[in-house]
Records
---
Amino acid sequence: MKHEMKKNSPPFDDDEISKSQRKRDMHALLALGKELVNLSKEQFTKLELSEELYDAIVEARNIRSHGALKRQLQYIGKRLRFVDADQIRGQIDTVVGHSKQAVATLHRAERWRDRLLAGGDAALGELLSEFSNADRQYLRQIIRNANKEAESGKSSKSARALFQYLRALMGGE
């Protein structure tokens, strides 16, 4: 059957989506599903997903057969059609640390670590006034250890621990 166009009408409706675009959308959902399956267990548990989608991803994580995994990923892609994929993408970016907010938190924690290692008690006082729930004694100890490690040329295990503590304190976990 030939497609007849009415005079003075656009060739397609604004609501009509091309087959190519639908295919690109489905491939994007498959990629999102694959990314969900490949998240670490800790990252995955932080996501808010529908029960059906959550169960499908857990099942996919346990599949070892290539063909079966491919079918399960197709199923996950189908389930993703019925949820807000942009919201899930945002959750993944936050959990993985790719969101602007997560990156900003990391940079802020790095700046505080450097200030604390260089500034001593004055910098610690500023940090404690901004974050009243911080553990003063633990911070003093870890700063002292990090400075000793830096002087002796050892690996900065304490500086990394300080960074981890600051990141958790600032909500970046």
---
Amino acid sequence: MNRLTLKQKLRVPLLLCWAALLIVTVVNALDAGNAQMDARRADLADVTDMAASIVADYAKQVDAGKLTIDAARQQAIARVVAQRYGTSGYVTIVGSDSVMVAHPISPQLNGKEMSGFRDAKGNALYHDIAAAGSSAAGSGYLTYWWPKPGETKPS
């Protein structure tokens, strides 16, 4: 350190401070991104729980003899697919056999077996959805590429 000039001695702590600030900024940005993703997942879990509670209510009505199973199924599907969240979020219903029960934005998919369908990145979307729903946990999160309502480019 004795061989350094005064200018160099003053620059070393300054460079170390800049490096430390850069590291803190990057770590904070990563933490903020993770916190946003966790919040998004919690919001999606809430939406899914609400849809499941609608279905459970109709199941109770069937058990009580107030509705037939077919009437309850039709009414539950109508209520679930009518749900919206955020600016473009919607709920679809996919069976454990990868058959599309109800898709509110693309009703032409209703009743179709979708296990072979691939998203824009090649992921087996509906197979993965059915696998997550059929897992021991009964839930899960996927990342997939699909056009938002009113758009043509997948995101």
---
Amino acid sequence: MPLLTWPTKALPDPQPAALTLDSVTYPRGLGYPAMPPDNSLYLGENLSVMSALLPEYEGRLDLIYVDPPFFTNKRFSARIGRGENSRRPDEWQLAEGYADHWDDLDSYLDFLYPRLALMHRLLAPHGTLYLHLDWHADAYARLLLDELFGRENLVNEVIWTYHGPSPIRRAFNRKHDTILVYAKGGDYIFNADAVREPYNPSTVKTF
């Protein structure tokens, strides 16, 4: 099987974070039950947090969805308002977001590769990974996932299309992201009915 290589490719021994309980919340104010682990929210650098979770959760997670930086080499703002028209970005309420900026492709892959490897370790034998990227790096990520999961465990390549303005004038607009779906093994879980949405009347055309 072809492998993606670069000079600094490695799987370093990640140092686990020291997890500190910040607060406990109870939905709808009902009672004070013990907080189950599947209702926990961890805030931190995900490589260290995933390393800290390994002793308890290695091989136990059913599903991981990850939306990492896309290797756009841009600095992004974050939308903080609600209910704005997605077709009118000049009206959005914004705050400073994150910098998706890298020295080169090698440094981006150095960031991505060890994290994908930890996700593979955390997934249960029947677990599934959903990796959300776009045209900047999805081809490289697919080769890394082929290596970590086995190319036979690619379940699907989901195309997420969207609308909105585009500055592109010399090519077709880039109007989709890619979600690469890989399973830990052949006996993976997929609950189709759990993700179904009824048709919205606005999407139905009448003739």
